[in-house]
Amino acid sequence: MNIKELDPESSPQAAFGARLRSAREEAGLTQDELADRMGYSSTHLSSVETGRKSPTLRLARSADTALGTGNAFERAWRVVRNLGLLEGFPQFVDVEGRAAEIRLYEVGVVPGLLQTPEYATVLADSALKRGAITNDQARECVTLVAERQSALIRTPAPLVFAVLDESCICRPIGEPAVMNAQLDRLIEFADLPNTVLQVAPFAMGARRPFDLPVTVLTLPDRSLLSYAESAQHGHLERESAFVLPILTAYHQLQAEALSQAESVAMIQQVRKGTR
C-alpha cells in the first residue's frame, strides 16, 4: 500500500491528519477498523489523515472517543478551525502543547498561558468593540486560552519559564476585581513546582534584550523553536542558527530580571496598591 508522506508542520490540517494516523497506528488499528468505530467510511478517514479533507468537530470528538485520547483531537480541531488567530499562531499552539520546556517573555499584557478566564474575556471583548474580531472569534479566543492551559496539565509536566515586563502587572485590565484575581493567579503560578516567574522591571532600561514578546520552545527531542509576532503575522522559527541567539538573549534577560521572590513581592505590592 502506498502511504502518503505528510509534513505535520505544513499546516494545522496536516498536523491533525498526521496525529490521527499516528494515534491509530499506536492503537494497532487499520483505517477500516478505526473508521468503523468512529462511524465514518475508511475513504473519508483516509482523506482526513492525508490532509485532503478538513476535520469536523464531530469527527474530532469521535476520534477522541474511539482512541481514548481525552479531548486531544478536539483541541487540535480548534487549531484547524483557526478563528481570530494570527497567521502562524495555530502551528505554534500545536507545538506548544507538546513542548518539554517553554520560555516566554511578554510585554503589556499577561500571556495567555497565565491568564484567568475573566482577564482573557476582557481582552477579547475589547478587540470585539474595536471591530478587530467577530463575536464567534471572541468566544474562540477565550476558549483557546483555556485549552492551551489544559494542554499543559500532563505527565511529565513541561517546565515553564515566564518573564513578564513590569507593564504586564501595572497595566490595569478590566475592573479591579479582574486585575486582582489575575495577579493572584500569577502568584499561584510562581508557586508551582515546574514553573519560574520573573518580572523585568522598567529600571532594566536598555539592558532588556527584547522589545517585543518572544517564546522559545524545547521539544522532547531537545530541538528548539522560537515564536514571535508582528501586528499581522506570527512566525515559528525552526532553524537553530536563528533560535540559539534568541535563547542566549533569553538567558541574559533572566539574569537581569528580578528573582522569583522579588518578582512575587512586587506583584503583591501592586495587588495591595502599595506601589
UniProtKB/TrEMBL annotation:
Domain HTH cro/C1-type: 20-73
Domain of life where this protein originates: Bacteria
InterPro entries tied to this protein: Cro/C1-type_HTH (IPR001387), DUF5753 (IPR043917), Lambda_DNA-bd_dom_sf (IPR010982)
Matching Pfam families: DUF5753, HTH_31
Protein name: Helix-turn-helix transcriptional regulator
Species whose genome carries this gene: Streptomyces cremeus
